């Protein structure tokens, strides 16, 4: 989870810094620890390039602002991190509910008048209160952060969507690199006519299958659908596999 990146780096830095001054270690080992600590600090500074790390950390119910204080962040840094969260929240998520409500009323005329009270523009203070209310609550020990925010969608309708979006960001590039490697296997020299949409769908299907979200029977059943068997990409797959 991306929210654990900063805490993990803090812990590693603590271990490196502590052992670098250990008198029982050989000079070569202490020098290696010091170099490792310096390199880690370099990558730690790079987290400032993206706001994702600070937003994800604050929007993790196990960390919030208390973790930043525990990590001895200066108050100026903490205030800046809070401002980043607020700005992103107000810019991208504050009006989310109003937009969804407009879409639902456009497709359901019978509910037009039942939503008149919701059409009143919500004051910015009320929107900001959603974030403030979350920060004021006590921290909780949470393992499944996505599941926690899913349960909080009624209490924090906008903030929960923001949290889910940011916590879905991969913490490392490993998954992305693996997807590229699988893409190379999928698009072989004898299978080069697949569309970009089909390639993306097949890679997604493969990831779901490995995660146990899709079963073999589901794939077999889908492959027998008439509309799929007429697809040019499906024919391309069958022909390339038979060669």
UniProtKB/TrEMBL annotation:
One Pfam family from the record:
Dimer_Tnp_hAT
The highest taxon in the source lineage is Eukaryota
A GO molecular function assigned to this protein is:
protein dimerization activity
Which InterPro entries does its entry note? Answer: HATC_C_dom, RNaseH-like_sf
Occurrences of domain HAT C-terminal dimerisation (ranges): 130-208
Query: Which PANTHER family does this UniProt record tie to the protein?
Result: BED FINGER-RELATED (PTHR23272), OS03G0311250 PROTEIN (PTHR23272:SF184)
> What is the protein's name according to its record?
HAT C-terminal dimerisation domain-containing protein
């Amino acid at each position: 989870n991306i929210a654990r990146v900063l805490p993990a780096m803090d812990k590693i830095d603590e271990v490196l810094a502590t052992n670098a001054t250990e008198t029982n270690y050989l000079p070569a080992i202490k020098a290696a620890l010091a170099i490792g600590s310096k390199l880690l600090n370099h990558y730690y500074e790079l987290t400032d390039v993206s706001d994702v790390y600070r937003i994800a950390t604050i929007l993790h119910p196990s960390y919030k602002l208390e973790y930043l204080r525990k990590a001895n962040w200066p108050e100026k840094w903490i205030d800046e991190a809070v401002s980043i969260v607020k700005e992103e929240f107000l810019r991208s998520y504050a009006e989310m509910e109003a937009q969804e409500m407009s879409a639902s009323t456009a497709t359901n005329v019978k509910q037009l008048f039942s939503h008149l009270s919701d059409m009143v523009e919500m004051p910015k203070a009320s929107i900001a209160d959603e974030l403030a209310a979350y920060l004021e609550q006590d921290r909780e020990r949470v393992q499944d952060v996505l599941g926690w925010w899913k349960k909080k969608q009624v209490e924090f309708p906008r903030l929960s969507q923001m949290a889910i979006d940011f916590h879905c960001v991969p913490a490392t590039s490993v998954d992305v690199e693996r997807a590229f490697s699988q893409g190379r296997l999928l698009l072989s020299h004898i299978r080069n006519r697949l569309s970009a949409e089909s390639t993306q769908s097949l890679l997604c299907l493969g990831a779901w299958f490995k995660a146990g979200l899709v079963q073999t029977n589901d794939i077999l059943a889908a492959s027998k659908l008439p509309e799929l068997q007429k697809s040019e990409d499906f024919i391309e797959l069958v022909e390339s596999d038979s060669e």
